[in-house]
Amino acid sequence: MIYASRMPGAFAAALAACLTALPIHAAAIDPDVAQDLARGGRMNVFLKVASDADLSAAKAMPDKGARRQFVHDTLNAHASASQAALRGWLDTHGVRYLSFWINNSLYLYDVDATLVRELATRSDVERVRGDHPLAIDAAVSQTAATSAPATIEWNIEQIHADEVWLHGNMGEGIVIANIDTGVRYTHEALRRQYRGNNGDGTFTHDYNWWDPQHNLAAPADSVGHGTHLMGIAVGGDGPGPQANDIGVAPGARWIAAKGCAQLSCSQLSLISAAQWVTCPTRVDGSDPDCTKAPDIVDNGWGGGGDDPWFHSYVSAWRAAGIIAVFSVGAGGPSCRSIGSPADYPEVVGVGATDMNDVLESFSSRGPGAFRPLKPDIVAPGESIRSASNTGDTAYVIFSGTSMAASHVSGTLALVLAAKPSATYAEAYRALAVGAERNLGPPPGAQSCAGRPYNQYPSFIYGWGRVDADGAAMAITR
């Protein structure tokens, strides 16, 4: 999980020192912005424009490509119209900015308190937010693991993904994206599944890879987190001759966006990645083609809970028919520690269990701020062996809620392959119905909000531990 703690207090004092006499919109200025500007400095900020597009018509569109194009066109047109006056004002004042349609916002460079004070009084500005990075955490390297085990990885067997393969389903026809530190696309366990692989020794990275910084024209990962997660979701070849059976849905394809540059994630990079996932472009950002959007987006990042900022991202994905999976964070064993966006109703929030089907002590618990039932489900997240970024045949063992989320993303690929027309509600129900509920008492508090851990759905295990075979069978019933 990539997460950030809650912002510190002292909002009132900082706001009084920096942004006095704001008649209407003072509450729209995030505390971190007020505090930083109160020190007399300059910073980069987001401006959320005070209106959102209506995407409700997308739900009735049966054609996947048309639905995604509608979402893109509607959001883009709404942003262009509603941002026009504000952009004109910024141009007049010589302010550099970027425009985003996914949540109708502008990213301003190098502003001071005077400018923020003036902007905060405008009726078309809903919120001012800073760009403080989210740090990578809860992914602990345990040991390098270069030799393959004699059997399928324990975690793949525990969720019964190998049983789904026996029915001829390895996730074929489904595309998973991840927003993380990147992916080593030449790794032996991931090269075949990369959608940019042309099958003749050449690769096409347009529409399959996005680096918001435009530094990397091909997928790469200097940290290893994203490579490891993608290996869990789609790595290996299932019942094929390859020894390293590390992935849940090895027949699915993958694409990736580098939302996290190193050991932290700029919120500017995250919003750029989220927008690209909704409607992929060439590596230079040109010629968007929404038909190339993924079916599932796997996320090992998030912030402190009760944060609505990312809601527009997941709403756009949901409208476009893209299922979002998020790790819940490492706030355990405390209750009410689920991070955002994992605490949103529109996403599948995933906690982590060990090989004995017991919740990891670090895994966050519910209730969630935006929906009490969180986590939605749990999955293996302890000592998971998967692909490493250090070499094309290298493997490493990590633990974390990010690893758990990738198991669920892979399981959803198997579910959608079994029923390509499945709606989000149907896929979610399949996860819930198929979940394994014979789980042990977690360390620390064994109940949250007065609900025992084994009263399902609970605020500790959600609907239970994911069972890929159970979910794949449930979607066809």
Blueprint of the fold:
Blueprint: E1 2-3, H1 11-18, H2 31-38, E2 43-49, H3 64-92, E3 97-100, E4 105-111, H4 113-120, E5 125-130, E6 134-136, E7 140-144, H5 154-158, H6 161-165, E8 175-179, E9 209-210, H7 225-234, E10 253-257, E11 264-265, H8 267-278, E12 296-299, H9 311-319, E13 323-327, E14 348-353, E15 377-380, E16 384-387, E17 395-399, H10 401-418, H11 424-434, E18 447-448, E19 451-452, H12 468-474
Parallel strand pairs: 8-10, 8-12, 9-10, 12-13, 13-14, 14-15
Antiparallel strand pairs: 1-6, 2-4, 2-5, 3-4, 6-11, 7-17, 16-17, 18-19
Helix pairs in contact: 1-2, 7-10, 10-12, 11-12
Report the β-strand fraction as a percent range: 15-25%
Tell me the name of the CATH homologous superfamily of the largest domain.
Peptidase S8/S53 domain
Mean pLDDT: 90
Number of helices: 12
Morphology:
globular
**Widest sheet: strand ordering:** 9-10-8-12-13-14-15
Low-pLDDT stretches are 2-27
**Number of self-contained structural domains:** 2
Distance between the termini: 33 Å
- Class by SSE composition: alpha/beta
User: How many whole angstroms does the radius of gyration measure?
Assistant: 22 Å
Write down the CATH topology of the largest domain. Answer: Rossmann fold
CATH architecture of the largest domain: 3-Layer(aba) Sandwich
Helix content: 25-40%
CATH class of the largest domain: Alpha Beta
Count of individual beta strands: 19
Q: Which sheet architecture does the biggest sheet show? A: 7 strands, parallel
